[in-house]
Write a structure and sequence with these properties.
Blueprint lengths: L1 E3 L5 E3 L2 E7 L5 H8 L2 H7 L7 H9 L8 E8 L2 E10 H4 L12 E8 L9 H14 L6 E4 L6 H9 L3 E3 L4 E5 L4
Parallel strand pairs: 6-7
Antiparallel strand pairs: 1-2, 2-3, 3-4, 4-5, 5-6, 7-9, 8-9
Length: 178
């Protein structure tokens, strides 16, 4: 049975979903998850990025990629998912326009453990990442561009009040209007 804690936490069988910063000890788990078919088909994009690219980014999170904020999500101490948020100013990807540092952010996420799929955990990962970004005083919006065939990802974004912009081909959530 699921229930929302009055302080905003997500509970399942008396355990709260918690996030923690990723550590080197999590790298084998990340490699395992990234190679699972339900993740690899969305996170390995021919000619753009590979599982090895994701692992390189995580291994270099304290150096070259220190602007990325990687998290492992757990239920009762059991890791089940991954999330990362970042300032788009640093990423400089070509699918959005950014004009100022610390205003536009993006997220990536997945539920790694198959037994956790379809039970609301992806929605909770997005909720927690969104809430973290909302605490940044200068943050104005979050943009996310899942593959449009990834109906689960599109659904959990919508469930977290993200709006799809057909003209831009991505989801966005406005945090602040000024």
């Amino acid at each position: 049975m699921f229930e929302i804690d009055f302080e905003g936490g997500f509970w399942y069988n008396n355990y709260m979903v918690k996030s923690r910063k990723i550590t080197d000890a999590d790298i084998p788990l990340m490699e395992k998850w990234l190679n699972k078919e339900h993740i690899k088909k969305w996170f390995e994009i021919p000619g753009l990025c590979t599982v090895d690219d994701w692992l390189y980014e995580i291994k270099n999170r304290n150096g070259e990629f220190s602007w990325l904020n990687h998290y492992i999500f757990e239920l009762g101490g059991v890791p089940f998912g991954f999330g990362v948020y970042y300032d788009c100013w640093n990423a400089k990807e070509d699918w959005y326009e950014v004009t100022k540092e610390s205003e536009l952010f993006s997220i990536d996420y997945f539920v790694g453990e198959p037994s956790f799929l379809g039970k609301g955990y992806g929605k909770e990962i997005i909720r927690q990442l969104t809430e973290t970004i909302q605490q940044i005083p200068t943050a104005k919006s979050i943009v996310v561009k899942p593959d449009n065939q990834n109906l689960s990802s599109c659904g959990v974004l919508t469930a977290n009040n993200y709006r799809y912009y057909e003209d831009k081909k991505y989801f966005a959530l406005q945090i602040k209007t000024q």
